[in-house]
Each structure stands twice: as C-alpha cells, then as structure tokens.
Amino acid sequence: MNSAVNPQVTSEFKDRFKEAVDLKNQGRSADAEQILNDLLVISPASASVHALLADTLWDQGQLTQAIASFRKAVELAPKSEMASLGLFHTLLESGDREGAIAEMDRFLSLSDSEEYQALAQQFGHGSSGS
Amino acid sequence: MSLLLARYPTKRMERTFRCTGERNVVQQQPSGGNEDQNEKNASSEEGVGPRFKKGSEDLDQLEGIEKQQQRSREARREHEQTDSGKDPDPQSAYPLIDDIEKSKRRLKNRFKKIKDYGDAIDEFGS
Prior knowledge:
Structural class of chain B: mainly alpha
Number of domains of chain A: 1
Radius of gyration of chain A: 16 Å
Distance between the termini of chain B: 111 Å
CATH architecture of chain A: Alpha Horseshoe
CATH superfamily of chain A: Tetratricopeptide repeat domain
Oligomer: heterodimer
Order of helices and strands of chain A: HHHHHHH
Order of helices and strands of chain B: HHHHHHH
Number of domains of chain B: 3
Number of helices of chain B: 7
Structural class of chain A: mainly alpha
Mean pLDDT of chain B: 65
Helix content of chain A: over 70%
Helix content of chain B: over 70%
Number of strands of chain B: 0
Distance between the termini of chain A: 34 Å
C-alpha cells in the first residue's frame, strides 16, 4: 500500500528485495541479510525489510538480532500478525516468556487473530489480555 | 582297569564326579579334549553376534515399554492435576510446546510464501 507513495521504493529496490527473498529461500541467508541491510539504508522505515531481515536472522540462529528486527517491524506495522508472531516466537525461544505473552496481549488488544487465540488458550490466557 | 573304571564308573565315583566335575575331564580325555574345547569356543564366538542382536532388540522393546509407561504416567498426572487443582507439573507443558512448535512452523511457512515486495507489502503494509 505504501510502495506507491514511498519515493525510496524504486523498481530497483523491489528487484533487490526479490533477490533477497530468493536467496533466503535458497538457504543463502547471509547473502540475503547483506542485501536487506543495504535496503534498510535506502528505506529504514520499511516494515517488510525489517521483518524479512528478522526472519533471515532467525534462520541463522541470531536470536537477539532477530528480536530487535522483529521489534522494529512491529513498531512500524503494529497490526501485522506476522511481525507480531515473529516477535512472539523469537522472544519465547530466547526464554522471555513474559515478553512473548506481553506481545500476544498487545496484538490481541488491537486485532483479532485465530493463531493467537489458539496460543492464548494454551497459555491459559483470555483474548482480553488478562 | 582304570580304563574300565572311566568307562563304567561306580555309583560312588559318579557321585564324586558330579560334585567336582572331574568326570567330564575323564570322559573328554580319550576323545581329544582340546578339539572339543576349540569347537566349543568357536561356537560360543559365533553366538556372540546373534546374542548382541537379540540384546539390541530387547533394548528397543524395553525403550518402547518405558516410553509407553512415561506417557501413561504423564496422562495420569495430568488427570490428577485437573482433579486436584494443584500447580501444574513441568511435564504437562509438553502439549503446549508442541502447539507452539506448530504455530512457529506455520509462521515460517507464511514467510516462505512471500515471493516479492508486493507479497511483503500485503503482510506488513510498508
């Protein structure tokens, strides 16, 4: 929705983004990470780039950096379920259960999510964020 | 005479042999005891393989039984907890971990479905 109004997103930007996606899907996470970091220099407020970078870092086991990138993606796109779930799972994986539940509660206070509803039941949490 | 005694021992001698195992020695000597011993050794070495194989099968079976017993214990504990309302045991967290793992896999698959910038915009907005 913002690509049309964001002057930083040129066709070259999109091509580079696709290249990063392809590399990531080929398992070449380090190469994808390099391109995504370059794209962040051009467009630092791109939630897509932050989220994809976060997933790439997660793939490489760089949990702390992945959490930081997912946080940034969540800040930029607070209603994105994928960004939120990414933050939730990486926090949980790092052992920060409270942080993960806080993110689940934050998202459920903004939006509905079947994925989170199911997880909330497992955690003994209500959708109201209790 | 001694050969005769060895072949046809008296009852008293038999009792003594049974206790000491001497009779086996006496009986083996005429027919070449060493060869028999070698054969016995060879056959026991041959038996090592199958015996170990059997052992590993038993071990697998034992492990299977242990796992089943553990599952039963967990199920019983879970049942007791719902009845007693006590603090949940860490063991009961396993189904939760399983669901979290499934959710994580679903998320990873969603990331894999992003093929270009347009797909990413649909998910993240910017």
